[in-house]
Each structure stands twice: as C-alpha cells, then as structure tokens.
Amino acid sequence: MTTELDHLATLAGQGRISRRDFLGRAAALGVSAALATTLAGKAFAQTPVKGGTIKAGLQGGESTNSLDPALNLNQVTYSFGKQWGEYLVRLTPDNKLENLIAEEIGASSDAKTWTIKVRDGIEFHNGKTVTAEDIAATIERHADEKSKSGALGVLKNIKTVKASGKEVIVTLGDADADFPYLMADYHLPIQPNGGKDDPSAGISAGPYKVTVNQPGVRHGGERFANYWRGDKAGHADQIEIIVINDATARLAALQGGQVHMINRVEPKVVDLVKRIPGVSIENVLGKGYYPFNMFCDTAPFDNNDLRMALKLAIDRNEMLEKILRGYGSVGNDFPINEAYPLFSADIEQRKFDPEKAAALYKKSGHSGSIVLRTSDVAFPGAVDAAQLYQQSCAKAGIKIEIKREPGDGYWSEVWNKQPFSLSYWGGRATQDQMYSTGYVSTADWNDTRFKRPEFDKMLFVARGELDQAKRKAIYHDMAVLMRDEGGLIVPFFNQFIDAAATNKIGGFAKSPIGEMMDGYALNECWLAA
C-alpha cells in the first residue's frame, strides 16, 4: 500500500489527478479520511517549479554506449533514453499501463490482432508530427530478425505491422493478452521512421532534446519547448547525467552538491548516507535481481549435475545479510518473485547444502577450478559477492577462481559472452515479458543459453491463456523447470537504492519498476524554489 500511496502522491504533485480523485483512491486503499486529507495536503503542496539544471551521478555507463535505443543495456542508457525518448505506454508504480503516444490500445476477441490509436498533435524533436507510420516502423525495426535490439525477444510473436490512417494494426502469431505491456519496453521509444534512417540520432518526442552525448562520461539535454506533456514533465531547463561508476565517488558527488541524485547506493553505506543532512535514501523492493549466469551449452556448465552443485553451494541467507544488508529478499533460481501477480509461492525454497553440492560435483566428473567473472559495475557488492560465494563453494570442495573485470566494457565484452559471470536484471512488466526477453530459446539476451523446446512451448501456451488460474499453473511449471535445470543462480532479489538531495529537488518518488523512478527522475523532479 505504501508504494501505491507514493504513486498517488507523485500524480498529485505533478497535477495528474484531482484532489477528489486522490481522496477516493486513498480511501479505496483503506486509508482513513483524516490521514488521507493530511496526505493530500502534503501531496498537492508539491507544485513543480520550472527552471535550472538537474544533475544525476549514475553508475552503469561505458565508452561503447550508443544512443540507438535498440542497444540500451545499462543504467545510463536506460535513464537517458527516458529523457529524450517518448513511448507508446509506460508502466506506473502499481504495475498498470498509462497511455502516452498511444491514445488507446484494443484487441480482437482472440487477442491476436491489436489496434493502436495514435494520439494527435505529438511532435518529434525535428519538428515532424508523430504518425502511425513512425510507430509501425519503430516496431518493425526492433522486431526484425536481423535486429540486435534488446526487445527482439518479446517481439518475435509479431507477424505483421501495418499503419492505417491514425491507427497501427499489429497481428500476432499466437494470442497474447499482455501485448500492450510489451510496448513499455525501454528499448522502444518512437523515432522518426522508426529510427531506420539514423537510429543513433537521439530524436524522439520526449521532454528533452539531446545536447551532449559523451559515452562513458556525460549526457545532457535541454527542455523540448513543444513537448506535449510539458505541464507534467520536463521541469528543469536542462538535465545532465554524469557517469560515475565508482560508488565512493558517486556518493561524494552527491554529498558535495555536484549532483542532485545518484543510483546504486551500496547497502553497506546506507546507514551512513541517512545521516547526511538534506539527503534521503529512496529504497524500494521490486522485480530486480542479481544473478550468477552459467551458459548451459558451454563446458563444464553443460552438465546439469555441475549446475545443480553450484546452485546448492551458495548460502543465500548469508549472501543477503552480508552483501545486501537485508535490502532485498532471497531468490530461488528463477527470475520471478512476489512482485509479479501470478507468482507461485508454493515452490520449495532452495537452501545451502554443501554435502549434496559436493556429491553432485563429484558425480559431474569435473575437476579443477571454475572461473567466475565479476566487476564493480555488475551490481553493488558484486566483487564481495563473488568472494563470499568462493568461500561457500570451498565448503563443498568446489574451487572458484575469481576474475575481476574492468567496469568499462563489462556489459559489451563479458556479460552474455563469458560462460560464468555476475549480472543484474531489472525485471519486466509481466512474467511473459521476463521469460521472452531472457530465457526463451531464441532471445538475443538469453544470457544463460537455456534453450528448451518444452519451456518455449509452455511460454507460448501461457501467453494465449486467458484463464488466470491455468496461466499461473503453467508459470509454476516453467519456474520449476528453470530452477532445476536452468543456468540461472538467483541468490537474491535486490531493492533499488537511490539517494536524492531532497532539500534541493522536489517530486522524487519511489518506483518498484526500476531505479531513478523507473528512469523518469530527471524529467519529473524539479529544483526546489
């Protein structure tokens, strides 16, 4: 309920709901009339202020980054894309859809044909009006089999895309009741002609126009005067992202006033940050998780006995306590937690079992050390996590050799290329989208090389199943299959831990969808008067 109240407060502060609506929705959440009135007074007092420059110090930028949204794969490109890009829809903190460029999205009775109605009067940064043709071209580009888009996995079900007047008609191969949620994927800002002419031009219809693009260093934008939602976003005259991959330097920049907000606060320093005057910790549990990825098709990880040994050799409770300091929850070797509506809570929780791990390791026939790659940029505490895992594996007679990789180039040269490495995922809107992006056999982002026809078949059946109980049962079986035979080790689901100088900016609101208000912090916050 706290997350939903935070979302209501944000909507109120941004003028997106009336006071009456705020009180009504608060009452529906079980909030007393007296408390709702008090909360409304605080929420509506947060009036956005225009002007100035808001700066963020973010971890997760590399010199190899591109403005092509198809290639977005780290926090900096993710957040910057939300400043210049505009989407068909977006996810709200309560996991519902808010229409943006799409005025409405409707389906045929069999959920195979979807019609997107385009909102009138939205302008690209180059002065051209957003049309149905631009939307169709955007979807086509990312759904092309030759595309390197991170959204390709969730778009493979699309058979045809056609613009017709002010509408876009999308035909699917299999029924998919979740199709509108796929359009919220952060790789899919609408671009002129879909970005086919120049995908890295940084042109869309978002609140800021790109003015600075120095990959691995800094990115900036100036307010787009003709942004269609100018009363609700784009409050600062300019925004700037400074790439600060070092956690200590990032915190120092916030404390010294060089930036107004930072991401990826390390759990071990949260209590220290809480004591900094004028700074607040903004933490929230969502769908994000920090995995250890094994390639199922690469020796020695192509042996399931070895994979299971490595899963049983991790002490999840110790890892949660020592690495995340409790700012998260224990994982169970599949990418879904209770934040998803159709999560199955009855799947047995895997526990640390060094004796069974040792027996399975011996059974696998492998000998010698196993190389695990890690980096400071993988996730907060990733190097310490690798070392802690090395110690727990030793109790099972498994020797782990840690290879610490440089941050610059980790996402382009290590993740999804090396057979055993640490990573992070931010989660997705639905279970279907999560599995389709990273675990279906044909997904470009299948970073465990888990390729099982029966798993794929279950995913496709669940996608078209409108009976939620039957759909949940299918997802249960998929989770068990991945847990027991996949290449994914999920020791924990993380909290997003940001920090903001709330004495200098207003409007910062937590979102379980992603860090930095799901990437929208720079354009929905404002400098305090």
Explain what this protein looks like in three dimensions.
The protein is of the alpha+beta class and 529 residues long. It has 19 helices and 19 strands. α1 (2-13) packs antiparallel against α2 (19-28) and α16 (453-464) packs antiparallel against α17. It is globular, with a radius of gyration of 23 Å. The chain starts with a helix and ends with a strand.
What is the alpha-carbon Rg in Å? 23 Å
What class, by secondary structure content?
Answer: alpha+beta
**Low-confidence spans:** none
What is the rounded distance between the termini?
A: 30 Å
Characterize this entry briefly.
The chain is of the alpha+beta class. The protein has 19 helices and 19 strands.
Looking at this protein, list some descriptive labels.
about 525 residues; alpha+beta; nine-stranded mixed beta sheet; four-stranded antiparallel beta sheet; 19 helices; about 30% helix
Write the SSE topology.
Elements: H1 2-13, H2 19-28, H3 33-44, E1 53-58, H4 75-84, E2 89-91, E3 97-99, E4 102-107, E5 113-118, H5 132-143, H6 152-155, E6 158-164, E7 167-172, H7 179-182, E8 208-214, E9 218-223, E10 238-243, H8 247-255, E11 261-262, H9 270-274, E12 280-294, H10 304-312, H11 316-323, E13 328-330, H12 354-364, E14 370-374, H13 382-394, E15 400-404, H14 410-414, E16 420-422, H15 431-438, H16 453-464, H17 468-485, E17 488-500, E18 505-506, H18 515-518, H19 521-524, E19 526-527
Parallel strand pairs: 1-10, 1-11, 14-15
Antiparallel strand pairs: 2-3, 4-5, 5-7, 6-7, 8-9, 9-10, 11-17, 12-16, 12-17, 13-17, 18-19
